[in-house]
Task: structure prediction
Amino acid sequence: MKRSLLSLALLMFVGYSASAQKVEFEEFDLDNGLHVILHQDNTAPVVATTVMYDVGGKDREEGRTGFAHFFEHLLFEGSENIERGEFMKIIPANGGTFNATTSQDRTYYYEIFPSNKLELGLWLESERMLHPVIDQVGVDTQNEVVKEEKRQSYDRPYGKLLEVIGNNLFEVHPYKDPNIGFMEDLDAATLEEFNAYFEKYYGPNNAVLIVAGDIDKEKTKELVKQYFSAVKPKPEVVRNFPKETPITETKKVTAYDPNIQIPAILAAYRLPGQASRDAYVLDMISSYLSGGKSSVLYKKLVDNQQQALAVQAVNLGQVDYNIFALFALPQGETTLDTLLAEMDEEIAKMQTELISERDYQKLQNQFENQFVNSNSSVAGIASSLATYYLLYGDVNLINTQLDLYRSITREEIRDVAAKYLSPNQRVEIQYLPKKDEK
Result:
């Protein structure tokens, strides 16, 4: 399955106004603990049925990485009432589309159907939750699928960047391991371990069901109860991940990748989780630095000084810790140290000076546009509702998050940059082509 939620943004089944509008929703819980959120919009005959489970790559034991991502695939194998391989045939045969994604923090399944197929979507997701078939044939089949995904997505130029950052930025938290896991861990896992993983994490009380689109809410409530009430709750998932010690001294690392020809420089910071206000400010900082060809770093290093082939600043949102990373590829004879110094120069300006009013308004416009686009379809709204509930603990952020961004001041941008983005708070990684073996 595709690992990016970008595909959801491309499902523009329903057009909305170009300005942010309030999204109405209704929440309720089943007796088994399943949280349900309904959003009714009858402007087009489309419905999204989605389930987000509170399980991701970080939920693993040492030596057993990658289980959550593996289950993203495995739970399409079939159920007691769906023959092997039929799950992915039923949906397109009924005019629908589907996918699933896994991050370090959650797993998300969704189907988009014509609204007269709502009951089918609910049945499919209840089958996945109630009685999937987890057997050795399915495990062996999906093991090969995951290995092929790894070859295509990770074993390609710069495909291991996030893995290298995580491995060097985290020492004890499970974010240190790649979301896809290590293939030797999956090879060594037993069928009993996979079944135990399902029993631990895939209960109704560890999930949220979203139904969005052309629905009748009262009828939908009855259908949800009909299909999901039989699912038994499971013991509460208790997490007690170790805390990372703050970085107070620059850590310098060299990493090698046989799939690249051009070296890269990385500088990564471990920052507060995505629900914190500072994380929102850091979103704006990353956009200011590299959000498009008119951004500060792109104009400076790519256009004007022609020192970089590419440059980027990213604030990767996660529940426990965000990752803020700088990345650049050199052009010509430019050294990696030079690139890092040039990027640091722009950050230092942000730490002592206010960005211009013009740049500030540009940022506000960018975030308003991103926010509106993310909720421009029933698929996008369903994803937002699930994410805000499960990962942020506040469903109504779908209506208030833009106001939060609007409330961020230029002074706050300066102060947050000064608080978190100093060289002694980061890991610097020289990412190099594999050394010649003689």
Q: What stands out?
A: Residues 136-153 form the longest helix (18 residues). Residues 2-19 have pLDDT under 50 and may be disordered.
